[in-house]
């Protein structure tokens, strides 16, 4: 068994960053609401983050080629930590929108740097285990970070200081780790027409996931606050959705490998629609009902992106995987830029249940598109389908890692 110990520092740095990122998203929403920012302003802050996130993903390869992984990581972490402190030094919606835009660039570039490093360091014999550990770290870090907020509070300086410390401390394992300078990833070619041509359904699916899931992640805390949840209750509410998605991705993916992936995609979207409608009409301010239903919502809604990518890969050549990763990430980010302000505006106009009414409308439209596409394009035979991979929406490099791991598993099966 190949030794994974050399990769521990990089995985540790990834965990610290994923936790800091998860903490920042929820904290911004709650602290912004406490400062009197309207839901629409908080939604715009989410849009700014995802706009920066997309820019960082697409342009960080140039930075890595220019200065190398360690220098790039140090620069980006320093800017990210400074941004966390600026949020509490200048409590102003315009300043926060600018900082969130820069944070999006920093975090996506940091994740791309780490994933590029892991991709270079992992071998065919341990790549699948590295991916599995990375997924576990993602779920554990993002979920666990939610509970730092009730422990530290949303008022004052403390939580922002801890967030800046976390980003800064991620430098320690990277700086002390293997000092090799791996080959930077290739430029992510962005050909949206080609991605659309390969799979219109996957492109629309990624857009719809951005419209809905980003809205949930950005303004979900405001929904929780509006129905009377405590800070710890809001942390549990957000965590329930995340954990639900983590639990269901692999079972749904395994089923989609065996049957028409579009049928699985269709029923997953229907599940997301039903759970969103149930939260809108039946949950009210009932604590247990909200927790159970948001778990089901996350179980279906958070699985749709990986299913979209898997469906696109079924129609793609091997040399198109990274192109698809970049293109679908673009469609997701476009939806994520538009989704939070749309949902927050509707919440401001019609109340907290408008968040899940909005997602219901998007899922209903996605169901209609899926049924149409099933009628105009034949299904891919099971023998020609690519194996499902549960994906993080952190950078196109993760797609490359996942594909290499799946290719290795497929070779072992034969």
From TrEMBL:
PROSITE patterns: MFS. It comes from the Bacteria. Keywords: Membrane, Transmembrane, Transmembrane helix. GO terms for molecular function: transmembrane transporter activity. The chain crosses the membrane at residues 41-60, 72-91, 97-118, 130-150, 156-174, 195-216, 263-283, 289-309, 321-343, 355-376. Residues 198-414 form the Major facilitator superfamily (MFS) profile domain. One of its GO terms (cellular component) is plasma membrane. The keyword Ribosomal protein does not apply. This is Major facilitator superfamily protein. It comes from Nitratireductor indicus C115. The lineage of its organism: Bacteria, Pseudomonadati, Pseudomonadota, Alphaproteobacteria, Hyphomicrobiales.
